From TrEMBL:
<feature type="binding site">
    <location>
        <position position="54"/>
    </location>
    <ligand>
        <name>substrate</name>
    </ligand>
</feature>
<dbReference type="InterPro" id="IPR037018">
    <property type="entry name" value="GH65_N"/>
</dbReference>
<keyword id="KW-0479">Metal-binding</keyword>
<dbReference type="InterPro" id="IPR036412">
    <property type="entry name" value="HAD-like_sf"/>
</dbReference>
<feature type="domain" description="Glycoside hydrolase family 65 central catalytic">
    <location>
        <begin position="525"/>
        <end position="887"/>
    </location>
</feature>
<feature type="binding site">
    <location>
        <position position="11"/>
    </location>
    <ligand>
        <name>Mg(2+)</name>
    </ligand>
</feature>
<feature type="binding site">
    <location>
        <begin position="116"/>
        <end position="120"/>
    </location>
    <ligand>
        <name>substrate</name>
    </ligand>
</feature>
<keyword id="KW-0808">Transferase</keyword>
<dbReference type="InterPro" id="IPR010976">
    <property type="entry name" value="B-phosphoglucomutase_hydrolase"/>
</dbReference>
<dbReference type="InterPro" id="IPR012341">
    <property type="entry name" value="6hp_glycosidase-like_sf"/>
</dbReference>
<dbReference type="InterPro" id="IPR023198">
    <property type="entry name" value="PGP-like_dom2"/>
</dbReference>
<feature type="binding site">
    <location>
        <begin position="11"/>
        <end position="13"/>
    </location>
    <ligand>
        <name>substrate</name>
    </ligand>
</feature>
<dbReference type="GO" id="GO:0030246">
    <property type="term" value="F:carbohydrate binding"/>
</dbReference>
<dbReference type="Pfam" id="PF03633">
    <property type="entry name" value="Glyco_hydro_65C"/>
</dbReference>
<feature type="site" description="Important for catalytic activity and assists the phosphoryl transfer reaction to Asp8 by balancing charge and orienting the reacting groups">
    <location>
        <position position="116"/>
    </location>
</feature>
<feature type="binding site">
    <location>
        <position position="147"/>
    </location>
    <ligand>
        <name>substrate</name>
    </ligand>
</feature>
<dbReference type="GO" id="GO:0004553">
    <property type="term" value="F:hydrolase activity, hydrolyzing O-glycosyl compounds"/>
</dbReference>
Length: 969
């Protein structure tokens, strides 16, 4: 498997071996001869310091002044003593576990280098006989600029032939950590965290290192592998932002990041409640504004922080950063949709206090969140809980004053505030109630609630939000209060029961069971959980690239939803898809406007947006991705085929379909030079490293399918819903002649093919671009910031699955051989710079039988967020990748294809798995697929008889309970 980290560079002294003793003895011998004072403390000050500078430390201590030449001579003398003493060096001087770590790394195929500023490094390696553990050695002889200059590590990377991005450094000195950072490498500090403040990770005991986590994500340890949960068992300030995302709870309507309850947690916390659809606007400042350039960007806003509760015991306030805490643990319970936290706090007076908190964001009551804070303390202890809801909180991606509090009030113990958005017409009401009752006040723009007790307390806080996304402005306040009143009446435990039953049903419909490493199982469930909780199931909202767990992508919705998330939903809980498609309908007018701005007809959806207006200012990799409209059509088609929901299709789906077909037919043209074929010029395919290309195969073939589908839907409406069709035709001015043009464009669509290579060219010029030495291109990172666009556009390097993706999305149109040739041509040219890439490669790799590669792509997808593979999970989960994970298991290893000819399964198992089981909902039926090493079976759990293909053979399922099976070779 291609790991993120492919080379590990080791400093020598203090990392692989301790030469301290010999340095000490060398200096000591010299000092004794000269009659200077020298001890362990002075020796420590000389650690990692060049020889002459070390001598100066000793001279200063002894108040001795010497001419430069004499100093140089004495430094050489010491070096001679040291080299002589080194002959004594032996295994006992090795850093405990270092050789074992090197062995483990090399067994994984990792390249290793020793990068030491010491000119004696080679002598040390030889004396110990450990040179064979390193592929390359860089010593003080090779470099001019010492650490913290990056030179030593850059040379190490060059000598092991690896891009710095894929290198990780082990260093015990802060200057070395800085050097690694300057070289653009990840770094593990060897020694206590306090001594190495710039190291992301530190380790003292090599035996604790989880090599897989190290190679996947540059981390010393992965989160504990558990089948149904994700546990934070160690609080580290630098990892807290990651946990805020991993433990974020949302229901698609609003989401709350997994911040600690207490204020001042001692790190750069981002307590945020993101409400889907509530956005702030700010103008773009274009140097040269061309027609169609967006005037404003908008981004989702942080509306409040309602999870803040501070605990005081006998007047002392709890602080996660400075209090004495043990058994601290936070845990996302995937089965129940709850985050729990527990710890024991010993106050400065020695009182032991047990704390347990729980929180949920209700999937049943989408306006409601709840938090329970329980404390137990010995007799006679005074407890005070202060719960604060901050109504004005900063947003990370949208500065300035974005929210104002219009009014606050209280009704029957429920506090409510109306917040208005400064740059848009939207408004929200947030309401809350506590139980038991306490003392309420408004401090500035914070609702403050104080509750005091003795010995023990359980405080429940119910929070609700109702916004103009949910209904008319006049209603928001009463509705927020009503929702909270009703949730309060139900009580925390009932809310929790509702949550549990929601998730129980979800897991019944969608769980992916893996008989293999627990970490794989955990990862797929974690991804499914975050995916499902991101779906608002409200027809005017969708799922953003980060869901509501973070706002790195400004809450924007991309093609991610239709192409990467809809499949998982449509084959498990298809009813949850309709609102996602309705969201597109709700912004259809904006898409019409956008088409006009782009001098086109029909409708063009904006590449990245929440409210419908285009926010993508890098137009060549945003607006130019016209394939988005075919992707939306594809999701409509999938939903239509799975549900037969004509009401949606004829009322809304068809209108979207016809309007976007109209745009694309108008955008394309018949090109004589291409045999009079219909071409789509100056577009961007999924590969965003290209620009303004002609005939991107993905775009053309997907658009052809869209035209065909639009014609089919038109014909169906003529037959089944003539009145609805008539009304629609009148509304959008559509006639037979135009539909004929779509049919003709589909028939005449230009689909590129290269006879010489026997592959599908990604576009008209891709094969003519400059070949690239992919060893010099870092993987799994967007390299647009590494090159001027004019240079990148010339390079034959691909960001993400493009033609490879087409081989799956329109798989029935291509032979297995062509798929394989395309995969073998494109994958080596792909740097997987987007998290959307590995999953598609997994699916194709499974289909062509490259199962171990497929497993590597599965792990990159499944562990994207758990391992924080791209170092940006703090900004929110990678929503497309969550859905992509489902696709790797079901379409990849499960081999499920839902072609026009019917449903097929061609399962394969990676070596690491013994089995796989998953449910699928298909056209009203529920199926269960079980795969073991020996056999693949499909059971009809519920629904009408059906036929399917299993491992290439036609099979019938004649009644519920029926099972068919085939031996697996
Ligand atoms: C990818 C796009 C994707 C977007 C949001 C980009 O890096 O290239 O395909 O839609 O991220 O996830």
């Amino acid at each position: 498997m291609a790991h993120q980290i492919r080379a590990v560079l080791f400093d020598l002294d203090g990392v692989v071996v301790f030469t301290d003793k010999y340095h000490y003895l060398g200096w000591k011998k010299l000092a004794d001869e000269k009659g200077w004072a020298f001890d362990e403390e002075i020796n420590h000050r000389c650690r990692g310091v060049p020889r002459l500078a070390s001598l100066q430390v000793i001279l200063d201590h002894n108040h001795v002044e010497l001419p430069q030449e004499e100093k140089e001579r004495l430094a050489d003398v010491k070096n001679e003593y040291y080299r002589e003493l080194l002959k004594e060096i032996n295994e006992e001087d090795l850093y405990p576990g270092a050789l074992d770590l090197l062995r483990r790394l090399r067994a994984e195929g990792t390249r290793t280098a020793c990068c030491s500023s010491s000119k004696n490094a080679q002598t040390v390696l030889d004396a110990l006989g450990i040179g064979e553990y390193f592929d390359a050695v860089v010593t003080g002889h090779d470099i001019e600029n010492p650490k913290p200059a990056p030179d030593i590590f850059l040379l190490g990377a060059e000598r092991v032939n690896m891009h710095p991005y894929h290198c990780l450094v082990f260093e015990d000195a802060e200057s070395g950590v800085e050097a690694a950072r300057a070289a653009g490498m990840k770094c593990v500090g060897v020694g206590p965290r306090e001594r190495l403040p710039s190291a992301g990770e530190t380790v003292e005991d090599y035996a604790r290192i989880d090599v897989q986590a190290l190679l996947d994500a540059g981390r010393v340890r992965s989160v504990p592998a558990e089948p149904w949960s994700l546990t934070e068992d160690e609080v580290r300030p630098d990892r807290c932002p990651y946990w805020e995302t991993a433990l974020a709870l949302t229901n698609g309507v609003f989401g709350v990041r997994g911040t600690f309850e207490e204020s001042e947690p001692g790190y750069d916390a981002y307590p945020a409640t993101l409400v889907n659809g509530l956005c702030g606007y700010e103008p773009y400042h274009h140097i040269w504004k061309m027609p169609g350039f967006p005037e404003y960007r908008h981004a989702i806003l942080n509306m409040c922080d309602w999870v803040n509760i501070d605990l005081e015991v006998d007047g002392e306030r709890f602080s996660i950063a400075s209090s004495t805490v043990r058994d601290h643990c936070r845990r996302l319970d995937l089965k129940r949709g709850i985050v729990e936290r527990s710890f024991i706090w010993t106050t400065t007076a020695g009182t032991e206090v047990e704390v347990h908190t729980e929180r949920l964001v209700s999937m049943v009551r989408r306006q409601i969140g709840a938090l329970r804070y329980s404390v137990k303390a010995p007799q006679g202890t005074r407890l005070s809980l202060t719960s604060r809801t901050r109504l004005l909180v900063p947003s990370r991606v949208m500065g300035g004053e974005q929210v104002r509090v219009r009014e606050t009030g209280e009704e029957d113990g429920i506090e409510v505030a109306v917040q208005e958005l400064v740059t848009s017409d939207d408004a929200a009401a947030v309401a809350q109630a506590h139980s038991p009752e306490g003392e309420r006040s408004l401090e500035g723009s914070d609702f403050v609630f104080r509750y005091t007790a003795e010995t023990g307390a359980t405080l429940d806080k119910i929070f609700g939000v109702w916004s103009t996304m949910d209904g008319p402005e006049d209603d928001i306040k009463p509705r927020a209060v009503e929702e909270v009143a009703s949730a309060r009446k139900a009580g925390y435990e009932e809310l929790r029961r509702e949550q549990e039953s929601f998730w129980a049903r979800f897991w019944r419909d969608a769980d992916l069971e893996i008989d293999g490493p627990v970490q794989d199982q955990q990862a797929v469930r974690f991804n499914l959980f975050h995916l499902r909780q991101g779906n608002p199931e409200r027809g005017n909202r969708s799922i953003s690239a980060n869901g509501l767990s973070g706002d790195q992508y400004s809450g924007h919705v991309f093609w991610d939803t239709e192409m990467y998330m809809v499949p998982a939903f449509v084959y498990t809980q298809p009813e949850s898809v309709r609102p996602l498609l309705e969201y597109r309908y709700s912004i259809l007018d904006k898409a019409r406007e956008r088409a006009r701005e782009m001098e086109g007809k029909g409708a063009l959806f904006s590449w990245n947006s929440v409210k419908g207006e285009e926010c993508g200012h890098v137009f060549e990799a945003a607006t130019a991705q016209y394939h988005l409209v075919a992707d939306i059509a594809c999701a409509i088609g999938l939903y239509d085929r799975m549900t037969g929901d004509d009401a949606f299709l004829f009322e809304k789906g068809a209108e979207i379909l016809f309007e976007v077909s109209r745009f694309m037919e108008d955008r394309g043209c018949y090109v004589d030079h291409k045999g009079g074929r219909f071409c789509l010029n100056v577009v961007c395919g999924p590969d965003e490293y290209g620009c303004g290309v002609n005939n991107n195969a993905y775009t053309n073939v997907m658009t052809r399918w869209m035209f065909e589908y639009a014609c089919e839907v038109y014909a169906r409406m003529e037959r089944d819903a003539p009145q609805a069709l008539e009304a629609l035709r009148a509304r959008i001015g559509l006639d037979e002649e135009e539909v004929g043009r779509w049919r003709r464009a589909a028939e005449r669509m230009y689909v590129p093919y290269d006879d010489e290579l026997g592959i599908t060219p990604q576009d008209d010029c891709f094969l003519e671009l400059d070949p690239v030495d992919m060893d010099l291109v870092p993987k799994n990172t967007d390299i647009r910031s590494h090159h001027h666009p004019l240079n990148l556009w010339r390079m034959q390097v691909i960001k993400q699955a493009d033609t490879v993706m087409l081989m799956f999305t329109q798989g029935h149109r291509f032979s297995r051989e062509l798929k394989e040739r395309n995969y073998r041509f494109y994958e080596p040219r792909t740097n997987h710079g987007s998290s959307l890439s590995p999953c598609m490669h997994n699916i194709l790799a499974c289909e062509i039988g490259d199962i171990e590669d497929a497993y590597g792509f599965f792990r990159q997808t499944a562990l994207m967020d758990i391992h924080d593979f791209k170092n940006n999970t703090a900004g929110g989960v990678h929503s497309a990748c969550l859905g992509g994970c489902w696709m790797t298991v079901v379409h990849g290893f499960g081999g499920m294809r839902d072609y026009p000819g019917g449903l097929e399964f061609n399962p394969v198992l990676p070596d690491a798995w013994e089995g796989l089981a998953f449910p699928v909902t298909w056209k009203g039926r529920r199926l269960k697929i079980n795969v073991s090493r020996n056999e693949a079976g499909v059971t009809l759990l519920e629904g009408e008889p059906m036929s399917l293909k299993l491992c290439g053979e036609d099979m019938e399922l004649t009644a519920a309970g029926d099972r068919v099976a085939k031996p697996l070779g």
